[in-house]
Amino acid sequence: MTWSEDDGTVSRTFDDWKWNERENRAFLRLSAQWSEGAYKQAWEEAENSFSAHFDPHRHYGDEHVDIFDDSVDGLWPHSYAWITEASVVRNAVTAFEVYLEKALLEALGSSFTMEGKKHSIRLAAPRGFESPGWKTLVTAHKILGSDVETGDVRWARELRHLLTHQNGELRSEDALARFHDPDAEHDQDGIIRPYVGGKVLLGVPRVLQILESLAAVVRKADPLVWALCWSPAERRARWSNVLRELHKQKCIVVEPV
């Protein structure tokens, strides 16, 4: 038996990650679908409300815009879409990191017996934290045999940092260049120019590409995780050496129970 996503021969952690990714994609699609109808209804209601009270001697003719703005508390469709897309990116990158951590725990197990004594295994984490740092995750998966810090992953994590800690604001020319994407700068009304002090441009196609790049790394890493945990032959052949190297690189803490 070998790893197969189609047959469901995957790690338990992969199943959890895949469910989260499915929710992310559904959230992105349904939010766009539902918000389009809701915004259209709000606009029509604003127009109807204004028409019912229109006075050519008092009104200019575009007051329905203010009525609409009040009804949505200033959250226009483009801002709603950006918040939705940013949320999906943040959640996707975090789910990716959670996969890396939980996959290692599944592959290694929580304990083993050495010289007749039971020992616990846990991932090394900075003092005061329950989860390991990024370098530990990267090193550990490299020992398992996969590269989880690709260029696309580094870029996605930097974007997540920008969205989380700067609310997407491009604060320098370097940031502007780093997150430049010609495809994201085109919309139905023409070209949108990003600028220093403005927010990074996202868009559904760009967000979906980020999801795809993270998924590709997970799908390369999981066969090695699955084999180490669920393939008896692979576990006998590699588990001890992997554990020894992880301990040598200070990726895990082994303690007697």
What does this protein structure show overall?
The longest helix has 41 residues, at 12-52. The chain has helices at 12-52, 63-71, 77-108, 134-144, 151-165, 173-178, 204-230, 232-248, and strands at 111-114, 117-123, 186-187, 190-191, 252-256. The model has no long low-confidence stretch (mean pLDDT 91). It is mainly α and 257 residues long. It has a three-stranded antiparallel beta sheet with strand order 1-2-5. A two-stranded antiparallel sheet has the order 3-4. It starts with 11 loop residues before the first helix and ends with a strand. A hairpin with a 2-residue loop joins strand 1 and strand 2 (117-123). It is elongated, with a radius of gyration of 25 Å. The protein has eight helices and five strands.
Radius of gyration (CA) equals 25 Å
Compute the number of strand runs: 5
Q: Tally the helices: what do you get? A: 8
Determine the fraction of residues in helical runs and give it as a percent range.
Answer: 55-70%
Strand adjacency order, main sheet: 1-2-5
In short:
Helices cover about 60% and strands about 10% of the residues. It is mainly α and about 260 residues long.
Indicate the topology:
Layout: H1 12-52, H2 63-71, H3 77-108, E1 111-114, E2 117-123, H4 134-144, H5 151-165, H6 173-178, E3 186-187, E4 190-191, H7 204-230, H8 232-248, E5 252-256
Antiparallel strand pairs: 1-2, 2-5, 3-4
Helix pairs in contact: 1-2, 1-3, 1-7, 3-4, 3-5, 3-7, 7-8
